[in-house]
Design a protein that fits this description.
10% strand; eight-stranded parallel β-sheet; TIM Barrel; single chain; globular
Length: 306
Amino acid sequence: MPGLKSIVTLPDFSLSPRIDQVGVEERASRFTKRSIKKESKMNGLKLVLNMIDLTTLEGKDTDGKVKQLCYKAMHPHDALPGVPTVAAVCVYPSMVKVAKKALGDSGIKVASVSTAFPSGQAPKDVKIRDTKFAVSEGADEIDMVISRGKFHAGEYNFVFDEIAAIKEACGDARLKVILETGELGTFDKVRRASDIAMHAGADFIKTSTGKIQPAATMPVTLVMLEAIRDFYYKTGKMIGMKPAGGISKSKLALHYLVMVKEVLGEDWLSNEWFRFGASSLANDVLMQMVKEKTGSYQAANYFSVD
């Protein structure tokens, strides 16, 4: 069976567009100045909540903690009627089966990290086994990390081939490719890594593991959204986007939605195509929803601590 490289002519990823850093930062800052009408705010908050991948990725994770997170995913705030569920619960491969059973037929997806998350420092065959194990346990989505060392060494075809191999290992599961933008260093490299991931078969591109600072930022996300837009214009294929890490306030999340709408359009404003990788964001969104509904904030201890 010939390899992918032998039957497909790959783009020259070294020729990805150069990014005007000052221009990107200026455009991103404008999205934070958009006003959101009061009557639209509740709908926006519900949309944000429904786009969250509620996440626990700690060495101390237990079955009990994952079950509690799954309950919260299904019942974000029982005292507030009409609240949507989150999009997914994101866990380590060893916790996929626990999450899958706890979520039952709720419709909430189980996402699993893989490929030696968060470092990605493992042989390809180990990464493939890691992915296949998560899928066999019931993962609906796989969040993989790219090999940043190979990327920085200019081995772009290696990164491409590895993503393509993990995509194949995913079977029917959707693949989110984590660029770890905080380790890439420049917007030019973020754009190049985005292009590689999309051409290699990513269903989503994702900023960060949440383990490295800086994680998601609006300028970095804007660069990735523009890469998605350009890829769509060339291929007609929609790619999802997931900023992750550092988004803990609903006001900031709403700014992200404004940016998505203006760069990609309304078709991307659903959890099929846009996600927030977060844990604390959900509680802030719920607090704001209560405020919009009742006119006053509830104390933080009315919400679960994750």
